[in-house]
UniProtKB/TrEMBL annotation, chain A:
A Pfam entry, by short name: Fer2_2
SUPFAM superfamilies in the record: 2Fe-2S ferredoxin-like, CO dehydrogenase ISP C-domain like
S-adenosyl-L-methionine keyword on record: no
Organism of origin: Pedobacter planticolens
Protein name: 2Fe-2S iron-sulfur cluster binding domain-containing protein
UniProtKB/TrEMBL annotation, chain B:
Pfam families: CO_deh_flav_C, FAD_binding_5
Cross-referenced InterPro entries: CO_DH_flav_C (IPR005107), CO_DH_flav_C_dom_sf (IPR036683), Diverse_Substr_Oxidored (IPR051312), FAD-bd_PCMH (IPR016166), FAD-bd_PCMH-like_sf (IPR036318), FAD-bd_PCMH_sub1 (IPR016167), FAD-bd_PCMH_sub2 (IPR016169), Mopterin_DH_FAD-bd (IPR002346)
SMART domains cross-referenced by the UniProt entry: CO_deh_flav_C (SM01092)
Protein name per the record: Xanthine dehydrogenase family protein subunit M
This protein's record includes keyword Flavoprotein: yes
The entry's keywords: FAD, Flavoprotein
Superkingdom, taxonomy of origin: Bacteria
A GO MF label: oxidoreductase activity
Lineage: Bacteria, Pseudomonadati, Bacteroidota, Sphingobacteriia, Sphingobacteriales
UniProt domain FAD-binding PCMH-type: residue ranges: 1-221
Length: 206, 327
């Protein structure tokens, strides 16, 4: 990857690679590439793609990594950092199970390329509790039985914390509207809303 | 996802030069639609140019015109004090779109560039003239409940999915675009295209161009306005029909009316004939009904979406009724 800030420095290692015969052959003939992918040659082909250095903080811990451009932040967290609390539901930004905070803002991690998050500070469900002490939102979800199977719960809780912090938890209707990006197939919605409302009305900074 | 090269720049000129050199490259901003489409194999750019660090995140009022940088997030725009005060119709349209998580990431420029949610466009095993020109349209004679009733063609009946764009169309916004030859400015309503015989083109942005900002001129439409979105669930669903309505009422008469619809055409659908009709008249129910009737001239259903022929005028009437009733 090249960090390019002027027109002169546009020639990158990537461009150099592109000039090599194999890469040129593949890049100029998309059909060949597709066939290669079909025949599982894709994996070897992928090695030609540069892994990009990536520095970020996850739950206050700094990481220095190298990732392929196509790796999403969700896959990076789960597969490389083994932080499997963040769930993969739909993987298309429709369900909210993968919700995390990037620099304090709630985001679907399945639609964010990891390499776009250079220098960012990520918080996942693993980063909410203080040691053995649950975050107030986690405690409220348990108290109100805000889940059944639990698969959507990490995303629900990350979204709920942001919802309160944003100031969008002032009524049940407002909570429902601003939590609509988190789908629960078990239908625990009424209890989730109760949990969020209690944390909001508790008035503590969370 | 098929792999790709990745470059990042914080300079507009460099971004333009990079895209100019590489016809198979694409810009990425929020990525909420692009990454989705790449995962599904609908599109496969060979290179992504990350433009998130370009200096296009300002919202400022200059000579009574609101300048909105292309990289302003949908949530930042909806929460902006100037937007809330002067263009609350845009705020409502933004809040009606997507989810809180997506609005935090999706940008103004990216929202304009998002592709249709037509199921045939997304399903790479199906024919779609937009995805693969010449392959046919699966939606005509197929599942077309979500599809267009205005401005359709024999090659495509997809709709543009944005809510924000419906608001901007109603507000007479303009788009400032940068290209290799400099900047140009076009009316927002001319940014998106009808499908015609080239449904692969969603808009009039040329290859190698970049959206810099959107501009909204001052108006008096911040009192009587409403954005009404009808969808299959209360929140977080694409519009079946949506209506942006704004009225400037002086001495009991409509001095200025703005109406635009979403979910009904390949582009945000401005209801100019209805606006002209309403001007100078009182905002009575009968006049709202007549305006809705005028809007529906030339509407055409495709079977499963025939219900929109009734839903659309009813939504116009309801949006106007709510708008005029605001004190």
């Amino acid at each position: 990857m090249a960090e390019i800030d002027n027109n002169q420095s546009g020639d990158t290692r990537r461009d150099f690679l592109k000039k090599t015969s194999l890469f040129t052959a593949l890049s100029l003939t998309p059909l060949t590439v597709l066939k290669a992918a079909d025949n599982k040659v894709d994996e070897r082909f992928a090695e030609l793609f540069e892994k990009i250095p990536l520095n970020l903080k996850v739950n206050n811990k700094p990481y220095t990594l190298k990732v392929e451009p196509r790796v999403t932040l969700l896959d990076l967290l789960r597969e490389q950092l083994h932080l499997t609390g963040t769930k993969k539901g739909c993987d298309y930004g429709q369900c909210g199970a993968c919700t995390i905070h990037i620099d304090g803002v709630r985001v679907n991690s399945c639609l964010s390329l990891a390499v776009m998050n250079e220098g960012k500070s990520i918080t996942t469900i693993e980063g909410l509790a203080k040691g053995d002490e649950l975050h107030p939102m986690q405690a409220a979800f348990i108290k109100h039985d805000g889940f059944q199977c639990g698969y959507c719960t990490p995303g629900q809780i990350m979204s709920a914390v942001a919802c309160v912090r944003e100031g969008h938890a002032n009524s049940k209707d407002e909570i429902r509207e601003y939590m609509s990006g988190n789908i629960c197939r078990c239908g625990a919605y009424p209890n989730i809303v109760d949990a969020i409302q209690e944390v909001k009305e508790g008035g503590k900074a969370i | 996802m098929i792999n790709f090269q990745f470059v990042r720049t914080s300079v507009v000129k460099t971004a333009l030069s990079l895209i100019g050199k590489d016809p198979k490259a694409a810009f990425i901003a929020g990525g909420t639609n692009l990454v989705d489409l790449m995962k599904r194999g609908v599109i496969a750019p060979e290179k992504l140019i990350d433009i998130n660090h370009l200096p296009l995140k300002q919202i400022e009022l200059k000579n009574n015109i609101l300048h909105i940088g292309a990289l302003v997030s949908n949530s930042a725009l909806a929460e902006n004090a100037l937007v809330k005060e002067k263009f609350p119709l845009l705020m409502l349209a933004l809040q009606a779109g997507a989810s809180a998580q997506l609005r935090n990431v999706a940008t103004v420029g990216g929202n304009m560039m998002q592709r249709t949610r037509c199921g045939y466009f997304y399903d790479t095993t199906m024919p779609c003239n937009k995805r693969q020109p010449g392959s046919g349209c699966g939606a005509i004679g197929g599942y077309n409940r979500m599809h267009a009733i205005f401005g359709t063609s024999e090659s495509c009946i997809a709709v543009h999915p944005s809510d924000m764009c419906v608001g901007l169309a109603a507000l007479d916004a303009q788009v400032v675009i940068a290209g290799a030859k400099g900047e140009r400015k076009i009316n927002f309503v001319d940014f998106h295209r009808l499908a015609g015989t080239t449904p692969e083109k969603d808009n009039n942005l040329q290859k190698g161009e970049l959206i810099l900002r959107v501009e909204i001129p001052a108006n008096n439409l911040n009192k009587n306005f409403h954005y009404l979105k009808v969808r299959d669930r209360t929140s977080y669903a694409f519009a079946l029909v949506s209506v942006a309505a704004a009225l400037e009422i002086k001495d009991g008469l409509i001095a200025n009316a703005r109406l635009a619809m979403g979910g009904v055409a390949h582009k945000p659908w401005r209801l100019t004939a209805s606006e002209v009709f309403l001007r100078g008249k009182p905002a009575t129910l009968a006049n709202c009904e007549e305006a809705a009737k005028l809007a529906m001239k030339d509407a055409k259903g495709f079977g499963e979406n025939d219900f929109k022929l009734k839903l659309a005028p009813n939504t116009i009437i309801e949006a106007l009724t709510i708008a005029k009733s605001k004190a």
